[in-house]
Design goal:
A: 121 residues, elongated, B: 157 residues, mainly alpha, 3 helices
Chain lengths: 121, 157
């Protein structure tokens, strides 16, 4: 059986985001998997309170884990939204405006998450 | 590319049995047609589940923010009937998260490592396995969540 030859993919920002979408997706599969098992299955969402949260975030490793997960979730989600926007919006300047809005939203979300994890006592 | 404008190259041609007569462009067209014919419901499900996954994440951000800022003492203090509603909503959102994750892994593996998974038969099989895996993981997760809720109930085990 002949396999099709590998297609040549031009290196551009779009191809980089395409690869990034898959890499972040695979990483998130494990990170969100750990979160769901720990919070939803083992602990139970009903038992999550401030004490549980404080105990978790007193450990730098969990702080980093949660922050890294939030970072990946934000980039994966906003990149997915950007794909959908590109399907609907075909005008370049308007796309650029949406890109800036999404970037601003991303910085805002990651900043909020970082503030919550590392700064709020 | 308009789907309706694509030539019907799949008729009478088995891509992987051909003797390399297809050009790269033709192979792309065949793959796109396979994706369109078989994967359109899956493609739609992936997008719908993405919305559910986003809602799941947002609900968790709200919960953690509310706890950290001392706006609430947690979902355990909510009335029991409300907790059951939350369980149902959580189970639905979790179904979206699990499907999006499992299907995403299938997509990533097919795109990066196993391009043959875009062959029609393998694609159908992979889609079925994805749904089956989602269902199994979801049932186990919902079972555990229900047990947790029963234990947290007033007078529960």
């Amino acid at each position: 059986m002949n396999k099709p030859a590998a297609l040549k993919i031009l290196h551009s920002l779009e191809s980089t985001t395409w690869v990034a979408m898959r890499v972040t997706g695979i990483l998130l599969f494990f990170l969100i998997g750990v979160y769901v098992v720990l919070v939803d299955i083992q602990t139970g969402i009903w038992n999550v309170d401030l004490d549980w949260l404080e105990t978790r975030w007193n450990q730098p490793l969990w702080q980093l884990f949660d922050f890294f997960t939030a970072l990946l979730v934000t980039s994966h989600t906003l990149n997915g939204v950007r794909y959908r926007v590109y399907e609907v919006v075909h005008v370049s300047p308007l796309r650029r405006v949406f890109n800036w809005i999404l970037l601003f939203l991303g910085v805002l979300l990651v900043g909020f998450w970082g503030w919550l994890i590392f700064l709020v006592k | 590319v308009r789907w309706s404008k694509l030539p019907d190259l799949t008729v009478g041609i088995d891509l992987f049995d051909s003797s390399g007569t297809l050009s790269e462009g033709e192979i792309v067209v065949v793959l796109l047609r396979n994706i369109r014919r078989i994967n359109m419901p899956v493609f739609t499900l992936h997008r719908v589940s993405a919305v559910g996954a986003i809602l799941y994440i947002i609900s968790r951000i709200f919960l953690v923010a509310a706890l950290k800022l001392r706006w609430t003492s947690g979902l355990g203090s909510a009335p029991y009937f409300l907790q059951i509603t939350i369980l149902v909503m959580n189970a639905l959102l979790l179904a979206c998260v699990i499907y999006h994750a499992v299907n995403g892994i299938r997509l990533a593996l097919a795109d990066i490592f196993f391009s043959r998974w875009y062959e029609i038969d393998l694609m159908k099989r992979a889609n079925m396995i994805t749904l089956l895996l989602t269902l199994i993981i979801w049932i186990l997760a919902v079972y555990s969540m229900t047990i947790n809720l029963v234990r947290a109930a007033p007078g529960g085990a």
